[in-house]
């Protein structure tokens, strides 16, 4: 029977995603990083699709007695880009997430500096700004409306994930998403497979950046 970590041990990093293909990409990245001497203290949680599923999964994962109760949380996976010129494989780092329901406070993502620097040092195209939540797949005119309202990207789980994480107690949170479709590259168009492969490869590559962010949170000056 595996031993539980000491009560005063640093908690593992919790990376939450919705889909099996997202978890597969993240776990592939975790194995590669571990083989290269990366940090092993990571939990990849598949929440299921949609904001309600994300809230429920996070509440359980951060509940009393769970090894991840005090964990920093990263919401990750794929997203839809909203800004013209975005392409599959671009990365979005949220400055804040906003719920799809009006009146729910935004969740601000602090401590993003190490994430932005590390991603850009890897040669990735990185966008930073408001990540909007939705309870459905966003297309066409609605995509333009969300962009006009200040969002750079949209997905269905990040806002709910970070809101649930903060509600379960003060902790660092972040949302890092990989664009799988964008205004000029919608999923219904020819080129979907190529865009999906590009996004998968980028998502698989970002785990070392999450490790660096986690490590930066443990530095004494923090």
What is the number of E strands?
Answer: 8
- The topology string of helices and strands comes to EHEHEEEHEHEHEHH
User: Biggest sheet, strands in spatial order?
Assistant: 3-7-6-4-8
Task: List the total number of helices.
Answer: 7
Work out the radius of gyration: 17 Å
Helix content, binned percent: 25-40%
Task: Give a quick account of the main beta sheet: strands, pairing sense, barrel closure.
Answer: 5 strands, mixed, barrel
Structural class: alpha/beta
* Distance between the ends: 35 Å
Average residue pLDDT? 86
Beta-strand proportion: 15-25%
Low-confidence stretches: 1-7
Shape descriptor: globular
Structure, explained:
The protein is α/β, with parallel strands linked by helices and 222 residues long. It has helices at residues 20-35, 51-61, 113-121, 140-148, 158-167, 192-205, 207-217; strands spanning 13-17, 42-46, 73-81, 91-98, 107-108, 126-133, 151-155, 173-181. Strands 3-7-6-4-8 form a 5-stranded mixed beta barrel, surrounded by 5 helices. β4 and β5 (107-108) form a beta hairpin. α1 (20-35) packs across α6 and α3 (113-121) runs antiparallel to α7. Residues 1-7 have low confidence and may be disordered.
What would a concise description of this structure say?
This protein is α/β, with parallel strands linked by helices. The chain has helices spanning 20-35, 51-61, 113-121, 140-148, 158-167, 192-205, 207-217, and strands at 13-17, 42-46, 73-81, 91-98, 107-108, 126-133, 151-155, 173-181. It has a 5-stranded mixed barrel, surrounded by 5 helices.
């Amino acid at each position: 029977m595996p031993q539980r970590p000491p009560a005063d041990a640093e908690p593992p990093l919790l990376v939450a995603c919705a889909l099996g293909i997202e978890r597969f990409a993240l776990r592939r990245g975790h194995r590669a990083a571990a083989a290269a001497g990366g940090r092993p203290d990571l939990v990849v949680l598949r929440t299921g699709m949609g904001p309600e599923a994300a809230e429920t999964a996070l509440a359980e994962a951060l509940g009393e007695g769970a090894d991840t109760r005090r964990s920093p949380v990263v919401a990750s996976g794929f997203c839809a880009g909203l800004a013209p010129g975005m392409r599959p494989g671009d990365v979005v780092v949220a400055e804040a997430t906003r719920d799809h329901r009006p009146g729910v406070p935004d969740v601000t993502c602090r401590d993003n500096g190490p994430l932005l620097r590390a991603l850009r040092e890897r040669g990735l195209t990185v966008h930073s700004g408001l990540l909007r939540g939705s309870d459905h797949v966003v297309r066409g005119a609605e995509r333009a409306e969300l962009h006009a309202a200040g969002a750079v990207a949209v997905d269905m789980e990040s806002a709910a994930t970070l809101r649930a994480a903060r509600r379960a107690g003060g902790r660092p949170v972040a949302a890092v998403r990989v664009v799988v479709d964008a205004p000029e590259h919608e999923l219904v168009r020819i080129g979907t497979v190529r865009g999906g492969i590009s996004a998968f490869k980028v998502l698989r590559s970002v785990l070392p950046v999450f490790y660096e962010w986690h490590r930066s949170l443990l530095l004494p000056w923090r």
